Amino acid sequence: MRILLFTLFLFTFAPFVMAAENGVTASSQTEAHTHYCPMHPEETGVAGDNCPICGMHLVPMEEGSSSEQNPEHKMQTPPPASDSVDGPPVYICPMHPHINGEEGDTCPICGMTLVPKNEGSQSHENHEDKPEGAFLIDPSYIQTLGVKTSGVAHHEFGLNIRAFGRIEPSTRLEYAIDVRTKGWIVDLNTDAVGDSVKKGDLLFTYYSPDLMNAQSDFLIGSRVGNAAQRLRLYGMEDKAIEQLKERGKFFEETPFYAPADGTVTWLNVRKGAYVNEGSSVLKLQDFTKVWVNADVPLRDVRFLEVGIPAKITIPETGEKYEALVDFIHPVNDPQNRTVTVRLVLDNPDGALKPDTYVDAAFNAKVQSRLAVPAEAVLYGGMGAYVIEDAGDGYFRPVMVETGITASGLTEITS
Question: Which residue spans of the chain are classified as CATH 2.40.30.170?
Answer without folding.
Answer: 161-169+288-367
